Amino acid sequence: MFSRIHKKYDQYDQIDALASVQKKVEEVKTVMHENIVIALDNCVKLEKLEQDSGKMKANATFCQLNFWFREVDDGGRSISQKCQEAS
User: Fold this and answer.
1) CA-to-CA distance for 71 and 56, rounded, in angstroms?
2) How far apart are CA 20 and CA 15, in angstroms?
C-alpha cells in the first residue's frame, strides 16, 4: 500500500507539469470567453449602426426631395442662386 502511494507522489514533477498545463488551459478558456463576449457586444453595436445608417439615408432622401420640390416651386432657381440673392 505504501509503495503505491510512494510511486504516485514520487512522480511529482509529472503531476506539477499537468497542473501547470491545466492552469494554462483555464487561462486560455477565460481569455476566449472574454473575446466571445466582446465579439457579441460588437455585433450588437454593428446592428445598431446599420439601423441608424438606414434612418440617416431615409432622412437624406427626404431632405433631397424636399429641396427639389422647393426648387420647383421657386421657378427652377437653384439653391446656390438663392444663396447669392440672399447675400
Assistant:
1) 22
2) 9
Residue in the structure block whose three cell numbers are 509503495? 3
CA distance 57 to 27: 45
Contact criterion met (CB below 8 Å) for 79 and 71:
yes
**Axis-axis angle for helices 12-73, 2-10 (nearest 10):** 50
pLDDT at residue 65, as a whole number = 80
**87 vs 84: CA distance, rounded Å:** 5
Mind listing the pLDDT tens digit for each residue in 29-87? 999 999 999 999 999 999 999 999 988 888 888 888 877 777 766 665 655 565 556 55
Q: Indicate the pTM of the whole model.
A: 0.51
What's the CA gap between 10 and 16, in Å, rounded? 11
